[in-house]
Specification:
Mean pLDDT: 81
Number of helices: 5
Strand content: 25-35%
Shape: flat
Number of strands: 46
Low-confidence stretches: 1-10, 12-16, 193-222, 398-427, 432-438, 641-660
Structural class: mainly beta
Distance between the termini: 83 Å
Helix content: 10-25%
Length: 660
């Protein structure tokens, strides 16, 4: 991947700002996305220890606007901030953003994107990075000392792909008259490697200081350090596995092949990219493939890899040959860029997501990155019959014959409409498209008034008897049809955001509720709909994220989808909260959204019928722990009517007491 950065035309010097600093959370659960601390020269340079600098990196695949992001530094346990920077500007995909202390002279010949005031202490210091909504996205602490770097030699500390830190290992970079022991606005150095040879010298393990293990091959590729499988799987999807013939072909099961696809918008050179295939039963790496030469792949183009020789797919030249077999189960494939950043992976924990069968069909990726079996007819390549689409556009997922007939009927009707409208004015089609676009926006605006209002994850310690619910509130004065709405979920250990509610939900009344639960009845209240079979919310301390979404299609990897209406994250794992998450789960205690910012458990009677619509985009601030869960469904009285009856009943009780 070509690494780029956006230089600021004018260097922004941080001045006094009216923006309030983000509050420093006690529960540290950074998202590490989309921007991270990538390199910190806390020791300064050989010229001056005051020539400190901080490098940020965009780890996402899109440009990020940094306006109102905040960088905060303070001495450990001090309430006074030593550094407070409100960021400005943009950072390119995979690009860098350089902040220099006091002026633009800390790193000669490399222009700073922004200048900060204040000093980085050599110990007992911590740095926070927040996005524009004060969500913590990265954090680093020098509780006693910094995790890496060298005070004497003025070496920076650099981030690895697994987010560990290591000390700059290079021999220095000359910038003007100064030698910098770091990589400002450039690819980080590799962790210093310490080699241990066995008695026979046949193999060698390389330990990366500050990082994980890397294994060196004992064959011709002995100089190649293979990437480590990360514990947290967060692929970039720059290049993806597009099609895999893991079952081989009809005549030879060993005729396996792998197709890659450039999912990005730019040309990518695959030189030094790696594919690893791992047997999940014994963690043995069976496939180790490296693109050793330049191979440029254009956007939306394919690359074909064949096993052992170029005969797996006759008449289509392979772009690369790999050795080793793809197991039919308990196997995983990983794709890494030259920096060992995970670009894609696919798991066959018990079996592959698709493909195989008597016809040895390949498994293909659709535009939403879901897998399906090739459903088309047999294709002939020379004397070989293949059920797949090597190095060409994938077949459209065929869920059933009925689905295909419906699609054919829709295409036929669309073609007829197109033929009839050929003589129409172009503006008519444009007006229709504009109308449809406006309708989508209108629906999103209406649906945006829906809120997750109450959630119960753990009703009892017995998993067999545990029930869960998610309650939705309509804060408008009109009913809202939920047919295009779904609940989706991503566990902290999950990989994709997937729908947990059923399709075609009902109508939620004005100022009313809609109840979706794991069982048909919860706390004596009938659920309006139930979770999909086998779906549930994690009760582990690592938690997960609940999404209320304006589509019934799985979001998969779209963490920042525009169709997300609301979300609630809990636990201390890999989650995606609004602001701060709800830190822990209490048995038989739900989380209920407030009516006002001042709402508490103690003053609950004052706001229990005022509607659950308070939303400051901070999960921890927006919900209370409700020790008496009270799920409500679409047949319950709207909040306003409840309020009337509550006050009327209270008045009757007072009159009765007065007469008595």
């Amino acid at each position: 991947i070509e690494e780029t950065s956006l230089k600021a035309k004018e260097i922004s010097v941080e001045k006094e700002t009216p923006l309030t600093p983000c509050s420093l959370p006690k529960n540290l659960s950074p998202t590490y996305f989309p921007v991270i601390f990538n390199e910190i020269a806390w020791a300064g340079t050989q010229k001056s220890s005051a020539d400190e600098w901080i490098e940020l990196r965009n780890v996402s695949a899109r440009e990020i606007g940094l306006d109102n992001f905040q960088l905060i530094g303070r001495k450990l346990n001090s309430e006074k901030l030593s550094i407070f920077v409100v960021l400005k500007g943009k950072i390119a995909p995979r690009g860098y953003f350089l902040l220099e202390r006091s002026d633009d002279n800390s790193v000669p010949e490399i222009e700073a994107d922004q200048v900060f005031k204040g000093a980085l202490n050599n110990s007992n210091f911590e740095l926070y990075l927040f996005d524009d909504k004060c969500q913590l996205i990265d954090f680093v602490s020098a509780s006693k000392n910094w995790p890496a770097g060298d005070r004497k030699e003025k070496r920076s500390m650099e981030r690895e792909i697994d987010l560990d830190w290591h000390t700059y290992s290079g021999s220095g970079i000359r910038l003007g008259s100064l030698v910098i022991f770091g990589t400002p606005k450039a690819k980080n150095s590799k962790a210093k490697e310490i080699s241990f040879s066995g008695g026979g010298g046949a193999s060698q393990i390389v330990l990366a200081v500050g990082g994980g293990k890397k294994e060196k091959s004992k064959e011709k590729t002995s100089q190649i350090s293979f990437c480590e499988i990360p514990s947290s799987l967060n692929p970039t999807h720059q290049v993806i596995f597009s099609e895999i013939a893991w079952a081989g072909a009809l005549d030879h099961a060993s005729d396996e092949w792998i197709e890659l696809f450039n999912f990005s918008q730019k040309e990518i050179n695959l030189r030094d990219w790696q594919i690893l295939g791992v047997n999940l039963k014994n963690n043995q790496t069976k496939i180790k493939f490296v693109f050793e030469k330049d191979l440029k792949i254009k956007p939306k183009d394919f690359v074909l890899l064949e096993r052992t020789d170029d005969e797996s797919v006759p008449q289509i030249p392979a772009d690369g040959i790999f050795t080793g077999s793809i197991n039919n189960s308990d196997f995983a494939l990983y794709l890494f860029d030259p920096q060992c950043q995970l670009s894609d992976f696919v798991l066959a924990s018990s079996s592959w997501p698709a493909g195989g069968g008597e016809e040895k069909r390949s498994m293909e990726r659709d535009e939403n990155l879901n897998w399906h079996s090739y459903f088309g007819p047999a294709q002939t390549f020379g004397s070989k019959v293949i059920f797949g689409t090597p190095k060409t556009e994938n077949s459209t997922s065929g869920e059933s014959q009925t689905t295909q007939e419906e699609r054919s009927q829709e295409e036929s009707e669309a073609n007829q409409e197109a033929a009839q409208s050929e003589s129409s004015e172009p503006s008519q089609q444009e007006n229709q498209e504009n109308s449809e676009h406006s309708q989508i926006l209108k629906n999103l605006r209406i649906l945006s008034y829906l809120k997750i209002s109450e959630v119960l994850v753990k009703s009892t310690s017995s998993l067999a008897n545990n029930f869960q619910f998610v309650e939705i509130y309509n804060s408008t004065s009109t009913p809202i049809d939920l047919k295009d709405v779904s609940l989706q979920y991503l566990g902290s250990r999950g990989k994709k955001i997937q729908r947990i509610s059923r399709k075609n939900l009902g109508v939620i009344p004005p100022h009313g509720f809609y109840l979706i639960a794991s069982t048909s009845t919860v706390f004596g209240k009938k659920a309006d709909s139930t979770f999909l079979s086998g779906k549930k919310l994690s009760t582990l301390s690592s938690g997960g994220t609940i999404f209320l979404v304006a589509t019934t299609t799985d979001l998969n990897f779209s963490i920042n989808s525009p169709f997300i209406l609301d979300k609630l994250a809990y636990g201390n794992g890999n989650i995606y909260p609004e602001g701060e998450p709800i830190p822990f789960i209490k048995e038989a205690v739900s989380w209920e959204r407030k009516a006002y910012s001042t709402s508490t458990q103690e003053n609950y009677p004052q706001w229990q019928f005022a509607g659950n619509s308070y939303d400051s985009d901070n999960n921890l601030a927006d919900f209370i722990f409700q020790e008496k869960p009270n799920p409500q469904n679409s047949t319950d009285l709207p909040e306003q009517e409840k309020s009337f009856f509550y006050l009327h009943q209270k008045k009757l009780n007072m009159n009765f007491l007065f007469q008595a």
